[in-house]
Design goal:
Elements (H helix, E strand, L loop, with lengths): L2 H17 L1 H5 L5 H9 L10 H11 L9 H13 L1 H7 L4 H12 L5 H5 L3 H16 L7 H18 L4 H18 L6 H23 L6 H7 L6 H20 L6 H22 L5 H17 L20 H62 L7 E5 L6 H9 L1 H6 L17 H6 L9 E5 L10 E5 L3 E5 L5 E5 L9 H10 L1
Parallel strand pairs: 1-2, 1-5
Antiparallel strand pairs: 3-4, 4-5
């Protein structure tokens, strides 16, 4: 191992350990984590993630053992190793530039949700590593062999975590820009394009054939359906584009919004400035491609998800945005050189480190507030006799004072801060909700049938008050079931499906 690669790995590992330290220190669980820790099953194959399912069965011997943060550490270290090719191919082997490109890739605010998963963080980060490796894999002299290898690797990404394909698309485009515009390797352009397109098409076909029989469950079937080839399908596609651009727009608010706008405008105008200052591109096609490349990269960062009829519009699915950050820094490097590109990008990296410290802490505070509330409820229930078998909950916990300032300053926290008792978007199977799984972590509440209802379901003036706190009120119904009225009320429309179910079960 040469000294440059050794230094790259050592310093990258140190920086990313500091970056991820908040996730190691603060503990909280998402719905999927709660589900797997309680039920002891994986079920990733139902989502078409066959390789993820296989990896965890090999690690945990068919039992959902929580190995966090070891899984996250292994996944991130895999990204460090694979991203070394970014340094070699795009940044003239500069160690510092390679580290900055890596930190921008993994420092994307959309990946904070990825690092939070107790189980999925391993395979999601492995998918990122594989996407980088596959995009930057050297072409073989044998075209058929090269297509075959890349197709197999792409199939691995599909079956690990599908949204990581977006990162592959962006990095492939960046490599094409490097070869076609900056290195002017025109003779091999068509083979490059043919190989990548053919590999993607073949991997999609193989993936659809291999996972079709595994996908099951309302959630998986709904979110894996493709849009129709029709006018309605086009409308759905455009609607999805607006949804994902809206998700990106959320980051342009809060404490650092003006700095984000400056970086985004710089990203858009850099190709134009490059053409004016460098004056080395004769071909009109090269000029046009460079000018529109920022918009193309932005579109590639999420376009593959827009072909789904009902895509999951969440931060964790925006893995392709990491490629956009790399491309922005790549253009800076080409325009300003090693020294000034690093100086310009440092403030953004500092913000990313702040995000990574604030995000897990806010999530942990929110999670702990629910645990405290459930401890209070369970202790009071233990003092009551002859209770029914049902606990009904309406509303949610209010935001803890400590988190309110954070929410205003960091919109990404506001969007992803978990409301475990929210009954928004619940279908008939309410036992798939985070609040349900969270209550099952409490040994007293575990023996009750927990459900979430509209606050209009029970007329509290006809119920027996039992306990009162600043955050909730406890009542007894005629059947001596428990009703918890949380102080933070939800809109009735958010609970309409569950309200109907409650009536049927009363």
């Amino acid at each position: 191992m040469d000294n440059n690669k050794k230094n790259y790995i050592i310093y990258s590992s140190i920086l990313l350990t500091i970056y991820l330290s908040g996730f190691f220190l603060y503990q909280f669980y998402y719905a999927d984590d709660l589900y797997r820790s309680i039920n002891g099953i994986f079920a990733w194959d139902r989502n078409g993630r066959l390789l993820t399912n296989f990896i965890f069965k090999m690690i945990a011997i068919n039992s959902s053992v929580n190995i966090y943060p070891l899984g996250l550490i292994v996944g991130v270290f895999s990204v460090i190793l694979c991203a070394n090719r970014l340094r070699l191919l795009l940044f003239k082997e500069h160690v510092a530039s390679g580290i900055i490109a890596l930190v921008l890739c993994l420092g994307s605010p959309f990946l904070l949700q990825v690092y939070s998963y107790r189980y999925d963080s391993l395979t999601m980060t492995l998918a990122i590593a594989l996407a980088i490796y596959t995009a930057l894999l050297p072409q073989k002299n044998n075209f058929t062999l090269s297509v075959g290898i890349r197709t197999i690797l792409l199939l691995g990404i599909w079956t690990l975590y599908q949204p990581a394909i977006s990162l592959f698309l962006v990095l492939s485009f960046i490599l094409f820009v490097e070869n076609y515009i900056f290195q002017k390797k025109g003779a091999n352009d068509k083979y490059f394009i043919y190989e990548y397109i053919l590999s993607i098409v073949l991997s999609v076909m193989l993936y659809m054939l291999s996972v079709k029989s595994f996908i099951s469950g309302v959630y998986s079937v709904e979110h894996s359906a493709l849009i129709a080839l029709s006018i309605n399908g086009l409308h759905e596609f455009l609607k999805n584009v607006m949804s994902f651009t809206g998700l990106i727009k959320l980051t342009f608010s809060g404490q650092f919004k003006y700095l984000y706008y400056i970086y985004f405008i710089l990203f858009l105008v850099l190709p134009f400035l490059h053409l004016i200052c460098k004056k080395q591109y004769v071909k009109f096609s090269r000029r046009c491609l460079l000018l529109i490349s920022p918009i193309l990269v932005l579109f590639l960062s999420f376009c593959i998800l827009c072909f789904l009829s009902s895509p999951v519009v969440q931060f964790r699915t925006m893995i392709g945005f990491s490629g956009l950050l790399i491309y922005g820094y790549y253009l800076l490097f080409k325009m300003l050189g090693f020294k000034w590109s690093n100086i310009v990008i440092i403030p953004l990296i500092i913000i990313f480190f702040v995000n990574a410290n604030v995000y897990p802490k806010a999530q942990s505070i929110r999670y702990d507030s629910y645990l405290t509330m459930m401890t209070s409820v369970s202790s009071k229930i233990a003092d009551l006799n002859d209770l029914g078998k049902t606990i009904s909950i309406s509303g949610d916990l209010p935001t803890i004072q400590e988190n309110r300032a954070v929410i205003n300053a960091f919109p990404i926290v506001k969007f992803s801060l978990k409301n475990y008792f929210s009954c928004r978007n619940l279908d008939e199977n309410y036992k798939g909700s985070s609040g349900y799984f969270l209550t099952k972590h409490n040994f007293i509440l575990d023996s009750y049938d927990v459900r979430f209802i509209s606050d209009k379901y029970y007329p509290v003036n006809k119920l027996t008050p039992v306990y009162h706190t600043p955050y909730y009120q406890m009542y007894l119904t005629e059947d001596r079931d428990i009703y918890l009225a949380m102080k933070h009320k939800q809109k009735d429309s958010e609970c309409v499906n569950f309200k109907k179910k409650s009536k049927g079960n009363s």
